[in-house]
Amino acid sequence: MNVTEIVPTVLTNDPEQYKMLIAKFQPFAKRIQVDIADGTFAPAVTIPVNNVWWPQGWTVDLHMMVARPSEHMPILLQLKPSLVIFHAETGEDLLPLFDQLKNAGIKAGVALMKPTFPGSVRPFIEKADHVLVFAGEIGKQGSQADMLQTEKIQLIKDINPNAEIGWDGGANLRTVRAISRAGADVIDVGSALTGAEDPSAMFEALTSDLDKRGVVL
Prior knowledge:
Layout lengths: L4 E6 L4 H11 L5 E7 L21 E7 L7 H7 L3 E5 L7 H9 L3 E6 L9 H6 L2 E5 L16 H9 L4 E5 L7 H6 L4 E4 L1 H4 L4 H12 L7
Parallel strand pairs: 1-2, 1-8, 2-3, 3-4, 4-5, 5-6, 6-7, 7-8
């Protein structure tokens, strides 16, 4: 059985709220995902990627919900996060961008929106270090998980068995165990943590729930 990691996500257009969320997650998080949206590919507009920072020692994934990934490459290469995730649906050829990231020691990821069949973007999946199954509403937190998207996980593994599989959208105490059992390596969690009265306790509850045995409801 795979070991699944719970990863808090940060989505905000306010630098002060960004700072507050980092402080909220710092007691327990070692890895986070920062969502960047440009208002074109995703309807929301977040803080720009050049305003992103994180505490020393953290593993940081940047989920780039942007229409033109290539335009963001200079700052991404300068920031040097652990992982950069671009969407397969942008229309740009992501393969040369993956090469640039990997040559800089940054992992390359691809995200698939709900309508996107893994086989239709096989070249991206074959070259990616991480494949994100996006099962919520883009640019928003607190959406309901589309659990039918779990069927993509095995299809992705068939194409690239070495890729880390991520899940984003509607992850909470009611859904994380089923998502984990479906084969996700990483579950990105937004509102279940940011809206919790005690985020540390919620993180522990989510992590503990992954270890429970029995029927997944």
